[in-house]
């Protein structure tokens, strides 16, 4: 993952499937007429030295974790990013979904900075369509 701050939004670029996520930091609210999306609609703000991201508007096609936990379009996610030091970031995530989860869930992750790392090309040729140019 690569994080790119801009005046209007913080962008996250993910190597997996080359996903781009926008976290709007320009003071906007979530739109009332959201079109559900895989990454939802995210707005961010600072609470002291913690960057808080509030996300709603998910479609019901994504999973919670890569093992396939389903959720509904009511999923609400709050993330708290805290930079512990120059090279380490702590992320706390709270997920609420009255339709799919019996109670709110919390998870925590740690990330380490790899300043010399690059986002690489990631392709899945098993699922791609190819043209046979020899025919």
By secondary-structure content and strand pairing, the structural class works out as: mainly beta
Shape: globular
Order of helices and strands: EEEEEEEE
**Low-confidence regions:** none
Roughly how many Å apart are the termini?
Answer: 40 Å
**Major sheet, described briefly?**
8 strands, mixed
Overview of the molecule:
- The chain has one domain (2-116).
- 0% of the residues lie in helices and 41% in strands.
- With 135 residues, it is mainly β.
- A hairpin with an 8-residue loop joins strand 7 and strand 8 (105-112).
- An eight-stranded mixed sheet has the order 1-2-3-4-5-6-7-8, with no helix packed on it.
- The chain is built from no helices and eight strands.
Element layout with pairings:
Blueprint: E1 2-5, E2 9-13, E3 20-24, E4 41-47, E5 50-56, E6 76-85, E7 88-96, E8 105-112
Summarize the structure.
It is built from no helices and eight strands. The chain is an all-beta fold and 135 residues long.
Feature tags:
eight-stranded mixed beta sheet; 135 residues; mainly beta; 8 strands
């Amino acid at each position: 993952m690569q994080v790119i701050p801009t005046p209007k939004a913080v962008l996250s670029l993910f190597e997996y499937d080359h996903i781009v996520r926008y976290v709007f930091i320009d003071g906007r609210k979530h739109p009332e007429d959201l079109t559900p999306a895989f990454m939802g609609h995210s707005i961010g703000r600072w609470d002291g030295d913690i960057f808080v991201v509030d996300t709603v508007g998910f479609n019901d096609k994504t999973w919670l974790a890569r093992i396939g936990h389903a959720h509904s379009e009511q999923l609400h996610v709050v993330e708290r990013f805290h930079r512990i030091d120059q090279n380490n970031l702590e992320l706390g995530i709270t997920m609420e979904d009255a339709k799919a989860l019996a109670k709110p869930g919390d998870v925590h992750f740690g990330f380490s900075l790899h300043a010399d790392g690059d986002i690489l090309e990631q392709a899945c040729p098993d699922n791609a369509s190819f043209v046979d140019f020899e025919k």
